[in-house]
Amino acid sequence: MNFEPSDDQAMIAETFARFFEENSSMARVRAAMPSGFDPELWRSFAEMGGFGIRVPEAQGGSGLGLFDAVLVMEEAGRSLASGPVAEAMIAARILAACGEPGAALLGKLIAGDAVVTIALHDAADTHAQWVAGGAVADAVIVRDGSTLYLVAPTADEKQVKPNLASMPLARIVLNGGARTVLSDTSDALHAFTAGVEEWKLLIAAALAGLSGEALRLASAYASERVQFGQLIGTFQGISHPLGDLKADTEGGKFLVWRAIRDIADGVDRAGAEVSLALWWNARTAGRTVSQALHTFGGYGLSTEYDIHLYNLRAKALPLILGDPAQLLEEAGRRLYHGETTVLPQVGDVSVEFDFGEEARALAAEVDAFFEANLTPELRARAHYSFDGHVPEFHKKIAEAGLHLPSWPKEYGGRNADAYASHAAYAAWEKHGWTTHAVGVTGLVGTMIRMFGSDELKDEVLSRIVAGDCICSLGFSEPASGSDVFAAKTRATPDGNGWRIDGQKMFTSGANMADYVLMLARTDPDSAKHRGLTMFIVPLKAEGVEIQPVFTFQDERTNITFYDGVRIPDTWRLGGINEGARVMSQALGMEHGASWDKTQWHMLREAETFCRDTKRRGVAMIEDDKVATRLARVVGHNLITEMLGWRGMWAAVEAKPHHGQGSMGKLFSSEAFLRDSADLLDLCAPESLTETTGPAAYINLSYRHAQGTTIYGGTSEVHRSVVAERALNLPRTRA
């Protein structure tokens, strides 16, 4: 797996970032208004080889891949480059495919001596179209049925009007007047069709870059503007929406990358991913620039502030194609109704989202184990929560060495990397077997391996390795919730050990676990974060009381009481009053959570329901509106995957912590919540029941999703982490 461009591609991105910073400053963007075209920028971009990026070297271009072009367009979007840059890059590629008839014009375009653009819709269906760059174009490439034409409109044939973002748009009649045949070969027609798909990805990338810059501007302003005696960036009403949008923007960028990777790999879904990429980035850019402008308050409305330029351009860029909602409908048809298209040849793609052979082998082994050992009786006991834990079967999994695959072999593991472990647990999800017990127990065991005494390792860790016990977490308390460092449960020195008194809330699995990982206060007089220590506490000890707390998610959690529970000092993890440092390790592991596997499972159940259920005599999935709603879930799931994988990759590669894990967890849980509610609606009234089958699973998913926005830190906590780590905003809990 790799989320980094190659060294050459990084150099291209950095080079064009500097280029646009120098040649498309906001002063230059303003100077180009109202025409929206900067001739000097156009010529300079040509000198940089920009228009020939996707043209073969034999025809005067660079012969680079689509991913290279996307990196350039991210920078073009970030700087609001004035002119039809994406359209000209596509026009150059189409002209190259047309051979000799397009050679002369191609040379002029690559040299910056001509402005050539494309009409995105077939002139046989839409005779007159608004064309990006049409106001300044020397020629427009037009498809009319089975023929490509060059149209060179005169000034009188261009209808130019002021537009939303002062772009060089013109409405041009494309099937009348003088036009010349460019090509009628199938290769040229395919190049045009593929060019439109490539245009979608280039514009999506530009919107991602634009959104990122709008967030940067808003965050910088929020970090210096004082209101009511405080930096406005400390207000959660400011920082939290920006944190959400940072996750959405990053997800949109990676969705473009995923589409390119999947085109290269021949994935059937790739055509739909192209449509989803532009739909998502258009939607996200609109929301992002609106929130960014709102951060500036009244100043954002002033033309003296640059943010309004981003606001207008974000909405205008994708609308030349039409209503972005049609892209989601298109994705639905491509996913569920067999619609196909010609996709571009993408060239070399350096990013890689494959887990590798080790992951496939381990996942296959886990899958085979469950196929062979999950009896009908066990399947009947399966549940997504701790309630699905069966001690005897857990022991059997441990004996096969499959319960802690990432652990070293001497601790019963497989030395599996993070990707293989992720793939293995996807096999658990396939069979509906809970990972709650192994996930939490693995976390606790890892803490013991890192900070535990030899005695604790001998007595507890050995049982974890053998599959003879499971563990739970004792972090939250009735009065503190996600503010775990406000813990009041006391640990008082008692001889050679400690006495534990207090209570913990949401101690899921405590009713069947043997041990709890507990954060307790050991110095009530020190600062909040400094007087805490971490312990392992046996739940079968005298003085422990466990009472159930039932949730509407069909899941039991617990409140646990500790009254004079005594443990030896050897059951302490880390130094006295150093619990916050130890705890950070646990929270770091927990904060990387993602529900992507569950979200895909929910989607598969919804697809099955819509295939099997008829409305007015027709299978639901044949309805375009139903396909559109399912496609939206696909888009959200792909972004969930990409953000989760990026967080995992960043951890494996020891990349700096910029909130990657929190972004993934935040987006995943919030998307799960929205999509489960929508699918519950879609499958009503059958989804109201709690019997069996797909509708019942969607019912459960809706209830399950509520908790995912709370587990491992609420969404509000993660929004703060993203705002602080990824946007450099001041602490939002002041």
Automatic annotation (TrEMBL):
Q: Which residues form the Acyl-CoA oxidase/dehydrogenase middle domain?
A: 473-549
Matches recorded under InterPro entries: Acyl-CoA_Oxase/DH_mid-dom, Acyl-CoA_Oxase/DH_mid-dom_sf, AcylCo_DH-like_C, AcylCo_DH/oxidase_C, AcylCoA_DH/ox_N, AcylCoA_DH/ox_N_sf, AcylCoA_DH/oxidase_NM_dom_sf, Mycobact_Acyl-CoA_DH
What are the names of the required cofactors?
FAD
Please verify whether the record's keywords include Nucleotide-binding. Answer: no
| UniProt superkingdom | Bacteria
Give UniProt keywords alphabetically: FAD, Flavoprotein, Oxidoreductase
* Domain Acyl-CoA dehydrogenase/oxidase C-terminal stretches: 200-333, 578-726
Report domain Acyl-CoA dehydrogenase/oxidase N-terminal positions: 6-100, 357-468
- Family to which the UniProt record says this protein belongs: Belongs to the acyl-CoA dehydrogenase family.
Name the UniProt record assigns to this protein = Acyl-CoA dehydrogenase
This protein's species is Sphingomonas psychrolutea
